[in-house]
Amino acid sequence: MNEKAYIESKPKFSVIWIVPIIAVLITGWMLYQHQSNKGHTIFLKMDNADGIIAGKTEVKVRSVQVGIVESLKLQIEQNAVIATIRIFKDYDTLLTEDAKFWTVKPRVDETGISGLNTLLSGVYIELLPGEQGNLANLFTMQDQPALIAPDIEGVRYKLKAANAEVLDVGTGIFFRNYKIGQVETASFNEKTLEMDYGVFINSPYDELISNNVIFWVNSGVEVDLSTEGIKVSTGSLSKLIKGGISVDYPPNSVADSIAQQYTQYKLHKNFAVALERRFDLFDLYLVEFEQSIKGLKPGAPVEYRGMRIGTVEQVPAQLVRDGQPLYFQQNNTSIPVLIKVEYGRIYEVDEQAKQYWQGNIEKWIENGLRASLKSGNLLTGAVYIELDFYSAAKPESIAKHSVYPVLPSVPSGFTALSEQVMALLNKLNGLPLDAALVEATDMLTAYKQLGAETEQLIKDLNNKKVPEKVEKNLTQLQGTLTQLTSSLKQFEKTLSTYQQGSGVMDQLTDTLSELESLSNTLKPVTKGLNEQPNMLIFDKNASEDPVPRKR
Amino acid sequence: MKSPLQICLLAMLIMGCSSNSSGHKYYKFSDQTEAIEKQIRAPETPIYLDQVSILGVSNQQAFVQFTQPNTVNIASFHFWAEHPESMLTQLTLSYLNNRGLTVIPRTLAGDLNTTRYSLKLVVDEYAGHYEKGAILSGNLYFYQLQNGNTHLVQTKRFSFENQLQDDGFDALVAAHKSNWLLLLNDVEQILTGQLRQNNK
């Protein structure tokens, strides 16, 4: 029996291997699916992780969840927290370099109250998708929400402010009280010492921004003080609280060509200051005041009978010649003030106004045109310069000894009143009282002498009875009487200056009457102020007067 | 961001400016020459009239009222349009001139050495009264001026009260005016009598 073992070779690949292979494939497919569904992992750097919880805090775009915070890690050396965020699949394209993240949480600021819904749900991270640049995976959390989304159309401009109020990012830009944009950036330039603002004007209102527009800070409250009283008007509540920037064309002007993006404008302190630039044709004059100029500040108006014609430039005028102030050299006690006569204020065609002014100013001065200080505001004590004609003013002309022509001035207010009182007192002091007393004393002495001589004469007559001596004594007596009569006339003349109807008495009586009238007028005011010191600002709190009743 | 102080000041300004106006009212006697019967007399010696003097609390433009026996109210919202001393002097002047007397304000007097007469009215009560309506009392003084010297010729105490015809300040003004016209009627008779006596 040929029996030979037959060795059947095993199949090289067992069917059973299909099972693990399939398992591996399925696992691989699952891993792939997991990885592909996992999305994109980014890192977000923030100052602190206030309210953010790993595994819970969501990342949203327009309230749609696009990711979740996976972990938080403290970076001590950078004083920061790094959050690892997973952005879901299909949202990777949002993560370009200009994408912005900020935390949405309850906020209370001048724009209102926002984020109240996060009180219960917890904070979340808002993502403002980027539009430009490469994809990135490291971002920085912003402190404040982004103001303007990249998809909003508009044009950006620059504003520079030297003296205007400092405004916040988000402050509205208003064209005739309609909001057309907002302040996007605000920074202080430490080199120019000016505030630099970047503003964004929403489309299509950017077409309103022409090259000749003016920007000014609008406080939101407009106070109109006229003879009809005080009228206060305000804009919207947000404008009232937050203020705003107004933009418009200058009065009597129309829009120029539309401005290019990033055109730079000057932000003026207020509307009045914004219009100042129109008055660029002016002449400088000096006014020398022989009184206190307290309350007069640069920028105060110069008016002619209530019409503004210029502006105070320097108080006091800092004019230097040969290294020292000009008024040191003039050896006088007056205080010089430099003013601008702005011809654009006198008439719209400023060249014509200048010609008119310069052709007549000398004649006006000869006719009594003088500058004086007037009180502009009783509460603040601010004063301004008023030009008017004073018929009693001493004749003067424009002095040209200085750098600028000098307009003559007259004292005003309390200074003028005190000068009048001083003049009256000086007049009283100047009366010849001493001389009158001396004359009266001389007269009495003469009487005494006369009495003695008469007595002597009578004695002589009685004793000696000499006619020639009588005649001599009579002659002496006649001379004495003549001297006495002269003295009496002088005394009578002196007294007549005090009589009723005399100039001194009339002036004194008028002054006292005016003072009494002023005192009567001020009595109710002083009574009110005594009862309620703040009545100048607030209404009287006094109760109604009792009504007289018929019985 | 605006500071809270600025917002408070702004609110105070708006509150102060937006509240109701205080409602001050000013009063004056009605046409002074109406209801005064005009009289023509022969020219007589001119009389100088001194400004009426008001003594005490009524010497002010605010209305004064006795609201209780010992309580005086000085009005905060109701005023004479001018000081009552000036107003009463004007009324006296126009009344006496209408009645044919030659009366010249003392402040416009010229020569005091010539013989003249002078009238002085001194008021010590001029107010509203919770029971009596409007009250007026005081003294009149009639002087003769001669050679620069002043001689008191006659003095008399006067006192008037007049119930209001209606409620309100207008009625009080009318009552005050009636009181003063009653006084002027007495004054006219005194002056006429004195002048007649001196001319004899």
From TrEMBL, chain A:
Signal peptide residues on this chain, from the entry's feature table: none
Pfam families annotated for this entry? MlaD (PF02470)
Q: Where in the cell is it found?
A: Cell inner membrane
Domain named Mce/MlaD is located at: 39-130, 291-389
Q: Which InterPro entries match?
A: Mce/MlaD (IPR003399), PqiA-PqiB_transport (IPR051800)
Does Cell inner membrane count among this protein's keywords?
yes
Keyword tags: Cell inner membrane, Cell membrane, Membrane, Transmembrane, Transmembrane helix
In terms of one coarse class, where is the protein primarily found? membrane
Q: What transmembrane ranges does the database entry give?
A: 12-32
List the NCBIfam families hit by this protein, alphabetically: PRK10807.1
Q: What is this protein called?
A: Intermembrane transport protein PqiB
